[in-house]
Amino acid sequence: SYGFETVSGREEKQARVDEVFHRVASRYDLMNDLMSAGMHRLWKDALVNWLAPSRRPGWKFIDVAGGTGDVAFRIVEASHRAAQGTVLDINASMLGVGAERAGKRKLDGNLTFVEGNAEELKLPDGEFDAYTIAFGIRNVPRIDKALAEAYRVLKPGGRFLCLEFSEVDMPLVDRFYDLWSFKAIPAIGDLVTKDRASYEYLVESIRRFPDQEHFAAAIREAGFERVTYRNLSGGIAAMHSGWKL
Ligand code: SAM
């Protein structure tokens, strides 16, 4: 448990998260670039490289907490536009921006945007070849529920891949990262969105998320096998992989 055991605690957390993303949706992509100094692009590329999407027609993936579509666009492009994807997010404002971007890139034929909750996917069992979630799972109040749902909707042989902020394992990076996240991120948030509190919350949520090993254990607990992870930028972010075998 991560401090949201009670029903009201969970609802409060989700409500807070929803409010943050409704408020920032239109500036979300710009904020991502500013706050990560563009690094989120490299991390998302690394995730999609590790996934190595199939070019087989009919190969299906779901990108949960897919927001404005960044990961889904990369997957479709890496599959040479063969993949069919579902972008699922709890927040209609984020999905709206995503659907508009997909149209501009002529990727709307490959993607379906669906409003839904990672804790309770209203989708059939064994539907997808891959399940991805990038910078989303730490926002979900019950991580174990989200992982169980990921397992359920994957086909046997399907792959789970998660990209998330993690625990920095390099002394110097650590010091710089503390300064960056506690000082710079709220200041940039204030400047661009006039919403310092949302970004303070964001930094908090990153600090509370389990480290690489604990998160790997939670993924195994959900039933996944061959669970491994790779650190990115000294552990500022990490990618976790697991298989439904
Ligand atoms: N994956 C995108 C990316 O990497 O740019 C968006 C990440 S954004 C930091 C987090 C997203 O998680 C938001 O769009 C938010 O609405 C979504 N989210 C939060 N709680 C969720 C839940 N319970 N189920 C599905 N999506 C959720």
UniProtKB/TrEMBL annotation:
Q: One GO biological process from the UniProt record? A: methylation
Residues bound to S-adenosyl-L-methionine = 68, 89, 117-118
Q: EC? A: 2.1.1.163, 2.1.1.201
Query: Keyword Ubl conjugation on this protein?
Result: no
Q: Gene3D superfamilies per the record? A: Vaccinia Virus protein VP39
The terms under GO molecular function for this entry are: 2-methoxy-6-polyprenyl-1,4-benzoquinol methyltransferase activity; demethylmenaquinone methyltransferase activity
Could you tell me which pathway this protein works in?
Quinol/quinone metabolism; menaquinone biosynthesis; menaquinol from 1,4-dihydroxy-2-naphthoate: step 2/2; Cofactor biosynthesis; ubiquinone biosynthesis
Q: Which InterPro entries match?
A: SAM-dependent_MTases_sf (IPR029063), UbiE/COQ5_MeTrFase (IPR004033), UbiE/COQ5_MeTrFase_CS (IPR023576)
The UniProt keywords, alphabetically, are: Menaquinone biosynthesis, Methyltransferase, S-adenosyl-L-methionine, Transferase, Ubiquinone biosynthesis
- Write down the PROSITE patterns for this protein, in alphabetical order: SAM_MT_UBIE, UBIE_1, UBIE_2
Reaction catalysis annotation: a 2-methoxy-6-(all-trans-polyprenyl)benzene-1,4-diol + S-adenosyl-L-methionine = a 5-methoxy-2-methyl-3-(all-trans-polyprenyl)benzene-1,4-diol + S-adenosyl-L-homocysteine + H(+); a 2-demethylmenaquinol + S-adenosyl-L-methionine = a menaquinol + S-adenosyl-L-homocysteine + H(+)
What is the annotated role of this protein in its UniProt record? Methyltransferase required for the conversion of demethylmenaquinol (DMKH2) to menaquinol (MKH2) and the conversion of 2-polyprenyl-6-methoxy-1,4-benzoquinol (DDMQH2) to 2-polyprenyl-3-methyl-6-methoxy-1,4-benzoquinol (DMQH2).
Q: Which family does it belong to?
A: Belongs to the class I-like SAM-binding methyltransferase superfamily. MenG/UbiE family.
Descriptive protein name: Ubiquinone/menaquinone biosynthesis C-methyltransferase UbiE
Q: What is the species of this protein?
A: Aureimonas fodinaquatilis
Q: Source organism lineage?
A: Bacteria, Pseudomonadati, Pseudomonadota, Alphaproteobacteria, Hyphomicrobiales
